[in-house]
Specification:
Order of helices and strands: EEEHEHEHE
Mean pLDDT: 85
Shape: globular
Number of strands: 6
Structural class: alpha/beta
CATH class: Alpha Beta
Strand order of the largest sheet: 5-4-3-6
Radius of gyration: 13 Å
Helix content: 25-40%
Distance between the termini: 26 Å
CATH topology: Rossmann fold
CATH architecture: 3-Layer(aba) Sandwich
Number of helices: 3
Amino acid sequence: MQLLVPSVLTHYGAPYLGVRPIQMSYAQKVIIHSKSGANNTLEALVEQFISDGVRFVAVAGKDCALIEDIIDEIVVGDGSDNTRFILTSSHPGESLEEVIQFVRIVTQGTGEPQLVEL
């Protein structure tokens, strides 16, 4: 049995609502577009990012600075595992289009960014 997780993905640079199989890896660059603010799904999401080798996460939308801080805390944990690393940024007041353009030029990670909605 395959478990599915609803998410917003990007396909050739355009977002679409799809169903992401759990075993499908996230892209190396991820943009979280927060529509509802921080919630209790962040820890599992960040752990999946680490497992999948995500290198950069940009956060836009509601509570983006808070969400970035929470992601940083989850990644660092108690500080005992220096292999856990994800570069993060938050973009309060910026449009999603501006954030997408920014992430495309970031050199941490390769490929097109993947959009995930919270």
